[in-house]
Amino acid sequence: AFFCLLLCVPWGSSCPRSCQCTERAGAKAVLCSSQHLEEIPKDTPKDVVFLKLDANSITKIPSNAFRHLSRLEELDLSRNAIEKIDRAAFKGVGAGLRSLDLSSNRIRSIPKEALLALNAKLRLANNPWHCECALQEVLWEAWLDPDSVQDITCHTAPREEYVGKPLLQVLDAGVNFCSVRQRTTDVAMFITMFGWFTMVIVYVICYVQHNREDTCKDVDYLKSLPSTQ
Description:
Blueprint: H1 2-8, E1 20-24, E2 27-31, E3 48-52, E4 60-61, E5 74-76, E6 84-85, E7 99-101, H2 112-116, E8 121-123, E9 129-130, H3 133-141, E10 154-156, H4 167-172, H5 177-224
Parallel strand pairs: 2-3, 3-5, 4-6, 5-7, 7-8, 9-10
Antiparallel strand pairs: 1-2
């Protein structure tokens, strides 16, 4: 009877250690706020709809961290110490994810692939962002919470004059970080091509000069031979 009972209990009914599992309007919620967690819990129930991991000490979101949570609608990762987010961090999260809060972390940059595939409303405010092309593309293409957009500030930037300013304000002024990167790439390619061209020219000059020296030696040798009628 005991083993039959175990088989009848769904695996998704377990609750991560230090978390509280409740129901909100008939949907399962897992509340792990302020529990000193250092990583994403691996034993989160598969049928969770609301997941709160805010105010912890999580530093990284690895690939496939939420792969098994296909019913997830709201995910709160605010007020952690997140510095790194992998490209496939949110891979497997269903299209039903409506809200993702990454505000008040230590995120300087983020792969655009990690966010642009989501349909969720994003909160990215109060992070030490490095203003670059990927962040610009997220701002233009992702669905950001309008109440927090002004708090996405350039902590570092290619030019000192952008530091401390809201990214939206910098972009509205006509700055395009993606075109800066493209120009940098073009310059690098031009320098590389010029270097190869220079090497080819030097090789040709050396080759011609070497052949000329060999020809002169052959002529001198022929002149030194005794003449015949």
